[in-house]
Amino acid sequence: MFSKILIANRGEIAVRIMRTAKRLGVATVAIYSDADAGSMHVAESDEAVRNGPAPVADSYLQAEAIIAAAKTTGAEAIHPGYGFLSENPDFVEQVRKAGLTFIGPSADAIRAMGLKDAAKALMETANVPVVPGYHGERQEPEFLKEQADNIGYPVLIKARAGGGGKGMRKVDAPDQFADALAGAQREGKASFADDRVLIEKYVTSPRHIEIQVFGDSHGNAVHLFERDCSLQRRHQKVIEEAPAPGMTDEMRTAMGDAAVKAAKAIGYAGAGTVEFIVDGSDGLRPDRFWFMEMNTRLQVEHPVTEAITGLDLVELQLRVASGEPLPFTQSGLAINGHAFEARLYAEDVPRGFLPAIGMLDHLQFSSAARNDTGVREGDEITPYYDPMIAKVIVHGRSRDEALAKMRAALADTQIAGTITNKAFLTALCRHDGFSKGEVDTGLIERDLEQLVGEDAAPVLAQAVAAIAVLGLAGTSDNDDPWSSLSGWRVWGAAQHFVKLVQGSAVFDLRVSLRNSRDFKVSSQTEAINVSLVKRSPRRMVVDGHARPLRFSVSEVSGRIAQVTVFLDGDTYVFDVPDGVTDAGDSGSGDEVRAPMPGLVKQVRVKAGDKVSKGDPLAVLEAMKMEHTLTAARDGTVAEVYVADGDQVSDGDLLVSLVLEKE
Ligand code: MV4
């Protein structure tokens, strides 16, 4: 076994590798970019070497600097993690030339799987089923068209160097072939500097089932069963599981044997994954799976395999890389129970899954799950890297039990300071078809609307946020609402107005103070009485609600810009527009302010116009999306403060309505 290794990666996978290394008594060297100097993977390493500025091209992809860092620190091997340099055969060769061990397969094995056409030809020779089609050298359009006609439509044209869905074109009929071919060639050329393509029979609503394989340097290879990764969106995996729903012993044996044949055909050593496309339209049948590609690295979703086999795949990688044989044979392996992994991301799902950033003001994971993460409370999700916050992994005796655990674990997960995809993951875990194990790669797109719908915050969540924004919740834990001075500035006025923005919804709330602990919070439609039993800057003990309500406020330049409220397993994020927390007695909904910085695309009203509740007043373009700002009540426009083309800041006043007596 090695005594010291360098981990050429960051985030959760770097931390995960270090944990195993530590358990085995192997010292670890981290590398980090300037953006990651204070990050968790650096804190967990035994020593760390700065590797450049934030952009990955200047840091985590700097092969020479990484190898130099390994040499200087006396590391004997480099673990690449996933992504970055993990499947770069030139890097593997450089590592070996420097006298170090690459914890992964040989450069030749990576190259053999790098191009789709060559990999398919190799697999055909090894008797691994490949999708019917043409993957030869000839590229004349007329010839390829003939091939497509022979295969039968629909066909799929794929750039041979492609990946992640790039350079792929589906063709439904012969007359569309020429245009689709030109498109795939253009994309292949632009993305991979290679315009060669292959043609395949198109598999409708396929499932993505992959087999984990492991080889050693003594010629042994086994498989560690399958993972189903069919729940994807735009080729990004969302939830993975093992075993695959509906898998039979016969199919598993057929797929496992094929995957081991694939690994042996290229003399594979280390952890790898053989990806198959499966036509599951009529159950899982051994003549309906085909080789897609082989990933020559440890994968993001490896923990579900660990959960059902009880193995530590990173430990196996280290053992195999240091020359040990695999400590088991195929017959010694068995599946225990069922596991799921959900990828928790900082992203704005309702706005088209836009990556989000932010400081993690509050971060609490469920103790009932394995949470693989590279961030801690107080850390920042930056725009430089993948915005994954954690992988939530659960294991149960059955699929139903594991899925119930995932729902509970997500409900227990609290994140504030950035918007996340937790509600989307929760909706998926409650999805009827998914709950029954009816998975295919089209599921998310088909039911997208139902899955991304944002739940409007209940009035209790709005009330908690409003009280927090006004500073009435307290400034220290165990604040006695009767004696505290916190929030004293606002005691004077009998009522306060707070505007909260939740996604596309705007809530205008009135908070009436009866005394320092009893409030009435009124929205446009409802009112609720809230009595604080105890105050704190993090939780509110509210009369009539059994459990304390947890919330978190995020400040930007000294003012509360966002409040996150956790209520009954759901998370509600409210943005607080600047300058709308003024005390006074104006009716609610009188002012329309910009909920975020943006460009005024169109003003739809002028002073004196009569408007009804819900009428559009102005259209704001922000973060590449258009937002229509609407009237919160019936009334008359008093004044318009902006014109088309104006640039506005978060909270700027755009339109006001004539005040009316309540
Ligand atoms: C296919 C296919 C249907 N038929 N090939 C997408 C990414 C690339 N790795 C292979 N992909 C596909 N290849 C044939 N012959 C459908 C897909 C596909 C897909 C595959 C796996 C997981 C998700 C997917 C989503 C859309 C399309």
Task: Tell me about this structure.
The chain has 662 residues and is an alpha+beta fold. The chain folds into five domains: 4-103, Rossmann fold (3-Layer(aba) Sandwich); 132-201, ATP-grasp fold, A domain (Dna Ligase, domain 1); 206-452, 2-Layer Sandwich (D-amino Acid Aminotransferase, Chain A, domain 1), CATH 3.30.470.20; 459-575, Glycoprotein, Type 4 Pilin (2-Layer Sandwich); 591-658, OB fold (Dihydrolipoamide Acetyltransferase, E2P) (Beta Barrel). Helix content is 25%, strand content 32%. The chain is built from 18 helices and 39 strands. It has an eight-stranded antiparallel beta sheet, with helices on both faces. Strands 24-25-26-27-28-29-30-31 form an eight-stranded antiparallel beta sheet, with helices on one face. Strands 3-2-1-4-5 form a five-stranded parallel beta sheet, sandwiched between helices. α12 (399-411) packs antiparallel against α13 (422-430).
